[in-house]
Each structure stands twice: as structure tokens, then as C-alpha cells.
Amino acid sequence: MKNYKNQEAILAKLGIAELNAMQVAALETIEKSTETILLSPTGTGKTLAFLLPIIAHLEQKTNSIQAIILVPARELAIQIDQVARDMGSGFRIATVYGGKSGTKERLDLKQTHDVLIGTPGRIADHFRRNALAIKNLKFLVFDEFDKSLEIGFETEMREIMEAIPSIEKKVLTSATQSIKVPDFVNLTNPKTVNFLATKDESKLEIEVLQTSEQQKLDDFYRLVCSVGQGNGIVFCNFKDTINEVSEFLNHKNVEHGCFFGGMEQIDRERVLIKFRNGTNRLLIATDLAARGIDIPDLDYIIHFELPQRLDEFTHRNGRTARMHSNGKAYILQDRRLLPEYVVDYSDMVLNSDKRIHNSEWATLFISGGRKDKISKGDIAGLLFKRGKLDKNEVGAIELKADCAFVAIPRKKANAIVQGLNNQKLKTKKVRISIL
Question: Which alpha helices (DSSP H) does 36-119 contain, by range?
Fold first, then answer.
């Protein structure tokens, strides 16, 4: 097995004490095998499990892309990009996806990159335009490959496979037990690492709150009050339903975020940032949020509307009942209309004494990022020294190429903005505002 001499340093940078059992098994299998299928629930660390062996095998100064990672969604591409950069390997990473300027991406791709992350549609487009140098390509990863097929990327994935030369290693990941690998992937003898939780390992409690369409919003509010102050996703099937629920919550002065496919990319990213750092505890979303995005462990999920298929139901529930962990799923439904796949549930008894309290955190936007040589430590230092915040008053910091976001106490946000806006951070004068 290759000597991962930098692994301890990488884990320290990521704030991880040690790899979990799935990651250890995945590393060993990817190292020994040319073809690996990695099955593990969303949120269990599959990204690090395939990035570590990729980084270990990359060579310096090849002037060519050495690894391609295909993902079904923009948010997953951004998440993998962030993890790869946080590893601090020194290798160059390019991330491409729809919603960004293709022209700017092609200009960027003229520079040397070692790892390319992106959606099948955008990567296939760059192949058609001969914008990719791949003579030294070694690794190909299909992350959440079944999701890419499900949402209609088969043609592009097939096109990419036909465009690349023979490669050393292929890795396919999924959070689904029953998967069918398409012929165009050309697997011959794959080794499977299966860490999908069994019913005994992952204990999901499902409770049903009896309601009617006329009472649904009011009962939903009572349910949200009853479950307390944890983080949760409310799943809806349609954008119109999300808008209806959001308007209702606004009327009740309940802060929340909305997440669905029709949103502008920048709005989708910022909604997830506020959800990750605790500014919003509640996310109203379609099945786009069921997997493939970077969000914290959830205390519960609510099915405001039930999906049509069992696998969609399973992926939603997997957001709160991950590997070897417990979870809560609530269903708002007339019990007589429950689909056959809803089994082993109990009736919900509401705690009428609880009330919703909005988060005490706010998110600051800072107009400087990696391109300005700004680090997370620089941002924390600014808030400690000039902002006079205590260490427990600086929450999660997310650093992007040209901006950054940080959670601080809501009650101090206005004063911080007034005191630090247009201050210099490193060599750049930055704008600071409340997101």
C-alpha cells in the first residue's frame, strides 16, 4: 500500500482525529484495486475516502489533468472543491458546472490543473471544445453516479467515457443499496466496499401527525414548535409548495431558508452556508437536498409532502438517520392515505408547551477570499482583535475564491459591520455586510 506520508498533516488541517472504518476500508480497496464501488450513506465521508488516494498518487508538474471527479449537482462539486482545498495538498483544482460562465471556465482551464471536478454536462461540453488536457489522466470518480443517471446525464457520461484514454483507477460511489452500473462505465472486476447501514445499525423513528389539507399548515407549525430548536429539513415535492410554506413561516416570523432547483446558483450556495453555520435552523427544500450536498447532521426531517417512490423516501430519511446513528422523521398526512412503503411508524403526540426561537447567529459577508491571499485565520484574527469578539463568538468560517462568510452573534452583527466595514484584511480593503 502506498505510503500516505502526508495523511496525518491533511487530517490535522481538516480537524479530523482519525479516519472512520468506511474510509479506512475504502483507502485500502482503492489502493489495491483498479475498480472500486463505494456504498455508504450521505454524510459519512466518502469525499475524503476517494480524495486521499487521489492526492497520494498525483505527480507534480505534469501539465495535464490527472483526476476527473463527476458529480450530479453543483453543490456537490463545490463541496468536494472545498474539501480538496482544505486538504492543502498544493495541487491545482478546477471546478466546472452550469450556472457559471463557460467562457471564463475555458480561460481558466488553459492554466495547468491536476484535478477537475464538475457536472457531466459541463465537463462533456469542455471535451467537445477540446478545452481539456488529459494525457496523464489516472483517476476517474463517478460520485453519486446513480443520481447522475437518474437526473438525465447518461448521454454526457457516456460521451466522457468515450473521450478519455485508458486509466489506472475508477471509483464509483453511491448512497443506494440497489444499484445497476451501466455498461458504458466498462467495469470488469470491481471490488465493493459496502457500509450502507442495516436496519439494526441505523435506528430511524417515524412518526405520523394526522392532518387534513385544510389544517396542514397550522399543524405543521405546531409540529415545528413541538420538535424544538434542532436543525431540520422540510421536504416538499414542488416549488409552489415551498413558496406556500415559506410565506406561512414568514407570517409566523420563523426564520428559514429555501432550496430548490430553480434558484439562482449564488442564492442556493448562500442558503446552504446559512444553514450549515446555524443562522437558519430550518430548510424548506425539494429532493435536491436529499443527498449530494454538504449540510450538518440533522435532528429531524419533516415530510410536508411524501415522495412518490420508496428510494426517494429513504434518501430523505437518510439525512437524519446516518450510519450507526439515530434519526427522526415526521410525516404530515391523513393516515388513510399513507403509501404502502410507510411502515413501522407511530402516532405523533405534540408537545404544545414548546415554542420556536430563531437562531442567535447571523452571517457576515466579506468581500475577500483565497485569491486575495486571505485565510480563515486572517478573518478570525480581524474579528478577535479589531472586532473584540471572544473565541466562542466566532462560528463557522467558509472561505471562497473571492469572498468569505462567517457566523457571529446576531446581537453584535450591526456593531461589527459598522466597526470593520472597509477595513484592510491582508492587503485588501474589504466590504463587510450582513448576509
Answer: 46-57, 74-86, 102-109
